[in-house]
Amino acid sequence: MLPFHNSYFPVAYLSLITSLLFIITLIPECVGQNFEKSRSVWVEQGLLLGKIYKLADNYVQIFRGIPYAEPPIGSLRFKRPVKRTRWHQEYAALDYGAPCLQFMEFHKHDKFAGSNMQNESEDCLFLNVFSPYDPEDESKLYPVLVWIHGGSFLAGSGDTGIDMEVVTKHFTSNGVVLITLNYRLGLLGFLNYKKNDHIEGNLGIWDLVLALEWIQTNMKQLNGDPSKVTVMGESAGAAAASVLAVSPRTKGLFHQAIMLSGSATAGWAIHRFGQPSWSITNIVAYIRCEKEFDKQTVQSLLKSSELPITSKECNMQERIPECLASSEEMNDLELVECFRNELNLSSFPFRYALATELGVSKLVVDDELIPLSGSELISQYARMPIMIGVAQHEWAHKKAQDYGLNQFKNVSIKDCNRNIRKIINEHYHTSCAKKLHNSTLELIANATFLRYIDTPENNRTLTRVVYGLQDLEADIEFVAPAQREIDGYVENGLPVYAYSFRYFPKSPIYEEDQKTFSIFGRETIKVKRKELQIRRNGRPRAFHGLDHAYIFTNGYSSNLHVEPFSKRDQQMAKMLTALITNFVKYRKPTPTEWNGFKWAPFTNESAQYAILDLPPKNAIGSLHWPATNFWNKEAALLEKLSLREKTVQTLSEELTADERLQLAAYRRAWWALWLLVGMIALVIWISVICVVVTRCHSPRAKPYNNIVVSR
């Protein structure tokens, strides 16, 4: 440490002041180079103020934090969103609105939204508009792209992973309006409960419906063409887009859909059978401590995320609502009213632990927004062109420890089977229309072992097994569902553009791990960076979410950085965004050839998809064949082996009370008959034995003198 000298202080002080003044003088100049003017427009709710910027030869107008619904708080909590009423003064849409309450940490330190994440709130239903602007024709309309963020329906917002400079370059400069938005997450957005004769839920998806209605009403004032609206989502956002594209409730609200690594046919998207994890009765059981969070898992998560433990009650709760303190029986509507008035969700540790315990916030069949689940929903209600695809190896970034495997040993058959059965039960089984018998699941698991793990050389090295498990999860959760959705649209004669994203940068990919520490009462963030190694047999593999880094940013996606962002990366970003914006504008990704590439649609007559790489090309067959054939055809045949037993069970459940008594009497008589037959057989057998024994001891029995014994 340098000693303090009076003579040193003035020099350092003057140097600091000079540097600060130099930076301050630069700031207005830098902003002034882009900022042109403010613009006010009339929307249904009143006057809206935004800003216009000039980038190169193009102008963009940006309106951020526009409220499209009434705040879902107070009496509107746990209810469908309500249309925003008029405001009486000019509304300044100059900054992002508060994100919805987060239930996971995926985007806590997001490069672009991290600071805004500190403002998370239940009052969060905002959208953001990035629109081209022509000063010579202020009424000119442009096609609209609505972006739905992913995050397991537990995390994210309209500004996560969004670089404003990049999106203006990729979208508005190409004549497309980009809209991003927030929707309610976790318990607030996907709680479900019984209401009269149906299930009520999917509030987060209802938020999206209201946002689309707002867009139809107001986009002309913001230079968007309401007759040319495309919805695009990634992961959970793609599943939401997939549902919205076929929902009877959204007819006329948009006209095309783009799904990046997600589908409504996936088991993690829509709940199929049994009690939903996010049902109110299940959550009440955790609040009342009738069920407990897994202690080891919670402690591990809390330790790794440096969360403060301040809970005074069970299950990470600071306070149990008084309306739930007693064990008095309450129906679902009474429980919802209790939640609305008393449930405090301000504690992030509780939200985090609850989400870890319950998993992805699944949608539910509610007979209105979502009338069916799975492939039936697509087959019956598909009505628009789509672009849909997956990454080459969706789960390539999962590690051995994610499967509970030792990093230094070959994997035993027992550990292989344990992981396979867990994946089959938790991921494949949940995508089935009905619950399968254990024997059927065992049969499918055995076939899966042969398909993904077993080799002629009996090679069960750690690397080989992890690759197999990664592919297994990816095929069940993303690839097979995408192909099912493709098939449903093709059956309806609709244009489908399918793809496999296979581009991988030559530059290193760095993974950031940020931790928050308290030093002398002040929070300090420590950033750890390490290079992500994602290769198979020496070749890199594109993974889940990597495409985001080439659409909305220059190489950033969910705390992963591609550095440096090379000319080759820029070329990939240019190609990918050109394909997307072309689809938005012309309903075709390649209305004309792109550097000699023409993206062919997937049809019954010509099944093919695009491989998005440099250079791009078309591939023949279904996505990642034969994986899709195994899950969508062969495994489906194995499911039918349990059909007979399920049918018998179903018929028994449909009998009347008198018929059940008759059936029970018939069964008793049947068993009595078999018991009588068994007793008669026993008597006959004993009689035969007695006759034989008596015969052997009879004095008239001749001795066997002719027996020769060898010596």
UniProtKB/TrEMBL annotation:
Pfam families, alphabetized: COesterase
Gene3D superfamilies: alpha/beta hydrolase
Keyword ATP-binding among record annotations: no
Keywords: Membrane, Transmembrane, Transmembrane helix
Domain Carboxylesterase type B: 38-631
TM region positions: 7-27, 669-693
InterPro entries: AB_hydrolase_fold, CarbesteraseB, Carboxylesterase_B_CS, Lipase_GDXG_HIS_AS, Type-B_Carboxylest/Lipase
GO molecular function: hydrolase activity
Family indicated by similarity: Belongs to the 'GDXG' lipolytic enzyme family.
The protein's name in its UniProt record: Carboxylesterase type B domain-containing protein
Species: Setaria digitata
